[in-house]
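Form 12-C: Joint structure prediction
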Amino acid sequence: MSRYDPASIEPKWQAAWEQAGTFRAEIVPDRPKYYVLEMFPYPSGRIHIGHVRNYTMGDVIARHRKANGFNVLHPMGFDAFGMPAENAAMASGGHPKDWTYGNIDTMVGQMKPLGFGLDWSRMFATCDEDYYGQQQALFLDFLEKGLVYRKNAVVNWDPVDMTVLANEQVIDGKGWRSGAPVERRELTQWFFRISDYSEELLSALDALDDWPAKVKLMQANWIGKSRGLQMAFGLIDGPEGHDRVDIYTTRPDTLTGASFVGISPDHPLARRLEKDDVELAEFNAECRRMGTSEEEMEKAEKRGYDTGLRVRHPFDTAWELPVFVANFILMDYGTGAIFGCPAHDQRDLDFARKYDLPVRSVFVPAMGEEGTFILPEDGGPAYVPPKPETVRYVAGFAGEEAQTGDAAIDAAIDFCEENAVGQGVTKFRLRDWGLSRQRYWGCPIPVVHCDTCGVVPEKKENLPVALPYDEDGKPIDFSIPGNPLDRHPTWRDCACPACGAPARRETDTMDTFVDSSWYYARFTAPDAGTPTDLKAAEYWMNVDQYIGGIEHAILHLLYSRFFARAMQMTGHLPDKCIEPFDALFTQGMVTHAIYQTRDPQGRPVYHYPEDVTLREGRGYLADGTEVEIIPSAKMSKSKNNVVDPVAIIGTYGADTARWFVLSDSPPERDVEWTAAGAEAAHKHLSRVHRMASEIAGSDAPETAEDEPLLREMHKAIRDVSLGVESFGFNAAIARLYAFTNALGKSRAGAGVKRQAARALAQLMAPMTPHLAEEMWQLLGGEGLVADAPWPVADESMLVEDTVTLPIQVNGKRRGEITVPNDAPKEEVEKAVLAHEAVVRALEGGAPKKLIVVPGRIVNVVV
RNA sequence: GCCCGCGUGGUGGAAUGGUAGACACAGGGGACUUAAAAUCCCCAGGCUUCGGCCGUGCCGGUUCGAGUCCGGCCGCGGGUACCA
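Section 2 - Result
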């Protein structure tokens, strides 16, 4: 009998699938299709165990749907543009293109041995000229339809490296390489008009029934629809052209508690005032030195600058309020100006206490709800109850005295509109999507700047506008600061597409989120001469099951939803594709301990897991140095805590790796990689292989044990099918362990055992496809198990004759009874009351209540 | 800061509002073996006066019954618009 040897059986079956074209996806008009897609990887250099988990999940779904008769599309590609390639070129020389394609080769070579049922013929990388050329064509069509425009926006500027920094490259307000304080700089940049679709992207979430509720909630909050009031506060003796400050508020019911007006440092009034006020100019400059991220803005200490100017309250012209410039007010949201009501906003209260501004409550808890309430003006915290809660308005001006915040807001808006002091408006938090990046390794924005014609779209026949590889005859040198496209000796030079005069190319490239916003559509026709092929899109779209990390819950998924709409509008997708992902599953991340030591400066130094030896919960380097272990950390290239699956496959085989990543945790939750788990998985698969070999060689006659095994088989078919369909992979695997144990113990005859073992092979096939093929062949299965129809449970074999009911007394388990499956309720009650533990508890009396949940449980209340 | 999750034995985890801890890992005991490896079998939440009692991050609530639903905390994670 042969041992389980994945190193020989895995390549054998991979070759068999390859030769048979098992996973080639071809359009077959009459067959139902199923499109499974996992978020494609960034080519970081090597695959990690997170990829294995993610793609194994997709493969389980794909193989299961194929077995259920669907024509399955399951493609793979690479999200290949982005900063790491440029960072690598800067850090260790070389060219981003060579680095990226080298990584892709490596990763494909690492993925193929995993035996995923992928149609590799459709593979592309977003940095392929063919792909980004088609993306440029999309951009031009979007431009023509007015879906793209230019405006100014701020970026993080590193004055030493002379480059724009990403938010993650700004650390404590300083550039990550240069250490120089970061400045905010305004540049003219391209934007997609995603905010035009705010309402649509919000309301369409309702129909996404097979998306996780949490993702829809996150998107809804991100889009942030709010009904509020816009109104003007008259400015007293303001500079020329500034006679009012327009504010936006979602709490107009608190207008009578206003104690100041705050404006953003980027507000036109602030910009005007700083010209004559050195101190304010310094304050604003300091605000602008902050990073551009929302997190940083919000976490920063709330600071303000009293402009000395005053405004009149719209309700009472005698009531004057000071105007502050405040660092926490965003120019991008609302009007860039607010009124502060310290009593009902903690941030405003902190601000008021800092700058000694008045605090005046507008409402207090409802009668009888006061409890230990302390007024904010008496030192209590800001009183901010949920809007649906009823409160008592002590300084109300519209509606009832006792009313909910929601009702008060409506009444306040009505009041302001009737008195012509304000206007009810709906606003969204969602901003337009800035797509310009001042970097080399991205899709060039296909426009030309002409001195006479201005900004001119490139002609489609001139696409792709390809990235230059060389500079002065040599590969571009990334050790020189600045954008290589900007400084390239010839690349920028071109003829104006409109007038033919010498002109300059746009040197900005596109955000890599653009690349990933339509790749799912390109997979349906990866070689088309246009971005999509409508016939192929019509057949394959939408993605039936999309699988990816929760970290993409908002940006990637929202951008893709926008892009699908924009592509539909420009004729690149059929109408039915505006929501491209029918079902979404967000898998958890794979975590792994971080091993770190410190350099002489106290900065962390991260070590690869393979360089660390674990002994009794502590970790040591080869030279004996102990490392600090930070458990369950997100895997990150920069932290060197990425597990390498190649070694796992080499030791145990792909099926073991696949089995383990599914078995150890529920798929939506994070999983911590452990070496012991892989060892255990391998032992189990060896055992299954051994059992299959034994059963294949047995000729034991049929026995009385045949039927119990068949019952177990049908129950396993039912439970595993359900598990696979509902992403309960770990539960399905637990069930397969139990079924394997039952098969191992069974004394059934060879015929029934073979039947059960073939079912086991089929049920395991989505997870461990190579082993399953081997078993299938040993056990006399016909053809490939990958092509075999999914087994169906026989309902009649699932029905049990008797059922065991636990008996509770006052909700606590005290015993159990076994009754016939179809016993009438009266009979069950009689049996329960006769039970020893119940008799003892009743002490001769009658139960207060007797609850019988048929087939489930009995509860006696005494 | 704000938005969204998650929290169950030594460990990973199971459990349509209905027997908490399935299935595994690590551990203990046994069989086989000259011995070891491999394999197979058994035990296993804590406490206990052996009647039971306590247990799903903490506090409270709803319910005949709560890991599950509701409210309030604590801890950890994801996102926070230029990481992908």
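Section 3 - Comments
The two ends of chain A are 63 Å apart (CA to CA). The CA atoms of residues 735 and 789 of chain A lie 20 Å apart.
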